[in-house]
Amino acid sequence: MPRLTDPAPRPSPGPVVALDIGGTKIAGALVDGEGRVLARSRRPTPAREDGETVMKAVEAVLGELAASPLWEAAGAVGIGSAGPVDASRGTVSPVNVPGWRDFPLVERVHRATGGRPVTLVGDGVAMTAAEHWLGAARGHDNALCLVVSTGVGGGLVLGGRLHPGPTGNAGHLGHISVDLDGEPCACGGRGCVERLAGGPHIARRALENGWRPGPDGDASAAAVAAAARAGDPVAVASFERAAQALAAGIAATAALVEVDIAVVGGGVAGAGEVLFGPLRRSLRSYATLSFVRNLTVVPAATGTDAGLLGAAAAAGWASSGPDS
Q1: Domains of the chain
Q2: Which residue, 307, 311, 308, 314, is CA-closest to 149?
Q3: Alpha-carbon distances of 26 from 19, 151, 263, rounded to whole Å
């Protein structure tokens, strides 16, 4: 595995095809070795439909990219997918896409892209690769990076190297249980970080406790964040609960593997200090051991393109060979 402290991945000549697949959207791009997005496409994820319908959305994104004059120069494909994934088998089983269970995504994308080599990583691992290559974790040899969106994913850099684990799921903090008597999670567990900190659950909790959307009817986590910034106590409390869950998961991970920075991205992180303020306060209550007390929590720097950039980086490193 290449060291992520290299200044950039070394992809094969020309751009790579990048796919970022989540419970809300399927994004695709052609990305060059400097991290520039040269062409892009996007479709909503038909998450409640059958597996073939979801795959058709992926193929539609690839079809739009194939219309670019740069398509023929793209030599490899990288996929960052909501998890869990099984990189060793090339399959995905996203918790929030029930139609995909052990879905052979690598094989299907390989066929859809004319036989190009395909590298699969979890969305948290992809975001981690992007943040360590171009973002807030650059220069850190031991880092935890989180994607807090519809779900909660994560990835690790340990000793200067991406650490995806045998199946590509290492660092998947969203399904650490932080509430032993908590609500059942879609993964089959109980009291998971995702069940408390995922965007839909932030909104659900606010609604259950009396918060009401404005005249536009927007009941998303972003709307709850806006209400929290305006001082709505129920909205504030919902974000504080999410922050507490994230802090517990981050502190547990830091105690286990001694990371010195946690980078938080994804749509929910767009709430800004509504999330990061209580997250830092809660972390002081959980990260109390001497070797985790100085853990830093910062927003991600690669923005909404983190998944695409990380998928591109994964494809680049894979195509250039180990330790190149």
Answers
A1: 16-126+304-320 (3.30.420.40), 139-301 (3.30.420.40)
A2: 307
A3: 7, 14, 23
- Residue 127's CB is within 10 A of a number of other CB atoms, namely 33
| Those residues with Cβ within 8 angstroms of residue 123's Cβ, 6 or more apart along the chain or in another chain | 20, 21, 22, 80, 81, 82, 83, 147, 153, 307
Q: State how far the Cα of 178 lies from the Cα of 114, in Å rounded to an integer.
A: 44
Instruction: Answer yes or no: is pLDDT of 118 > 80.
Output: yes
The alpha carbon torsion through 286, 159, 13, 126 (nearest 10 deg) reads -20
Residues 6+ positions from 284 with CB-CB distance below 8 Å: none
Q: How many degrees, rounded to 5, is the angle at CA 309 between CA 201 and CA 95?
A: 30
pLDDT of amino acid 9: 45
Relative to beta strand 25-31, strand 296-299 is unpaired
**Residue 56: partners with Cβ closer than 8 Å, 6 or more residues away:** none
- Closest by CA position to 54, among listed 96, 86, 116, 88: 96
Residue 168 region by backbone torsions, left for phi larger than 0, else alpha for psi between -120 and 50, else beta: left
Alpha-carbon separation of residue 51 from 20, 31, 105 (angstroms): 17, 27, 10
Are 60 and 112 in contact by the 8 Å Cβ rule? The answer is no
Q: Residue 200, preceding bond cis, omega within 30 degrees?
A: no
pLDDT score, position 10? 45
pLDDT bin (cut points 50, 70, 90) of residue 4 is: very low
pLDDT at 119 over 80: yes
Q: The whole model's pTM is what?
A: 0.85
pLDDT digits (tens, 9 = 90+) for 23-37: 889 999 999 989 999
What's the rounded Cα separation, in Å, for the pair 171 and 175? 10
Three-class secondary structure of residue 64 per DSSP: helix
Half-sphere exposure for 235 (CA within 13 Å, toward CB): 20
Cα–Cα distance measured from residue 49 to residue 23, given in angstroms and rounded to the nearest whole number: 12
